[in-house]
Write a structure and sequence with these properties.
The chain is α+β, with helices and mostly antiparallel strands and about 230 residues long. Helices cover about 20% and strands about 25% of the residues. The strands form 2 sheets. A 6-stranded mixed sheet has the order 7-4-9-2-1-11, with no helix packed on it. Helix 3 crosses helix 4.
Length: about 230
């Protein structure tokens, strides 16, 4: 029995090692297998351009000195610059965003499923924070929060829910670097209450422990997306 156990353990170790070595994290939400390779989509990046046809413009993006429009219900704007804006970012594992805030503007709780984020404040005062993943039975998720002033830097670990809020009476500007060419973003409120089709109200009623009328009210609202992709 002990011999069989060791053999099984060795096989499992070999399998998991192989999987870890051959399956990098996906750069999209899902990848559905198709039998015809010509009907598929290239995974974990984009098909590479012939190096002889590459131009300086493939590594260039202009205009991040210009503020994004914050005239929306959230009072914020995120101008994302990823591989879709700069083709030369393909395979490099990095991207950038400019964040603009009106007074009391909010970049609401969200997560980047494929990237950690490091943020630096250029103007204004931001209250930022992230919440840890579920720690265990009867334990609460921990909030890490900080008030940032110009020149301050804060890191948001990959996949964790986080936010930025302008506490000041003037506009605020920040820049963020993300550890993926296509980090993705899931805005929690939009995903939970603004999906199409909507999540069944009984599911959300039980999940949030509120009256069904509250859930239906939230689902009837327009959930604003403050992300801009030039």
């Amino acid at each position: 029995m002990a011999f069989r156990f060791h053999i099984a353990a060795a096989i499992l170790a070999l399998v998991f090692t192989s999987v870890h070595a051959s399956d990098p994290s996906p750069l999209q939400d899902f990848c559905v297998a198709v039998p015809d390779a010509n009907a598929g989509v290239f995974v974990n990046g984009k098909i590479c351009k012939d190096p002889k046809l590459v131009k300086p413009e493939d590594f260039f993006f202009p205009g991040l000195n210009k503020p994004g429009s914050t005239s929306n219900p959230l009072g914020s704007n995120v101008t994302a610059v990823n591989v879709n804006q700069i083709p030369g970012l393909n395979t490099l594992g990095v991207s950038l965003a400019r964040l603009d805030f009106a007074p009391y503007g909010l970049n609401p709780p969200h997560t980047h499923p494929r990237a950690a984020e490091i943020l630096v404040v250029l103007e204004g005062t931001l209250l930022v924070g992230f919440v840890t993943s579920n720690p265990g039975m009867n334990m609460k998720n921990k909030l890490f929060t900080k008030v940032l002033n110009p020149g301050d830097v804060f890191v948001f670990p990959e996949g964790l829910i986080h936010f930025q809020f302008n506490q000041g009476h003037s506009n605020a500007v920040a820049f963020a670097a993300l550890s993926s060419q296509n980090p993705g973003v899931i805005t929690i409120g939009n995903a939970v209450f603004g999906s199409n089709p909507p999540i069944y109200p009984d599911v959300l009623t039980k999940a949030f422990q509120v009256d069904k009328k509250v859930i239906k009210y939230l689902q009837s609202q327009f959930w604003w997306d403050n992300h801009y992709y030039p």
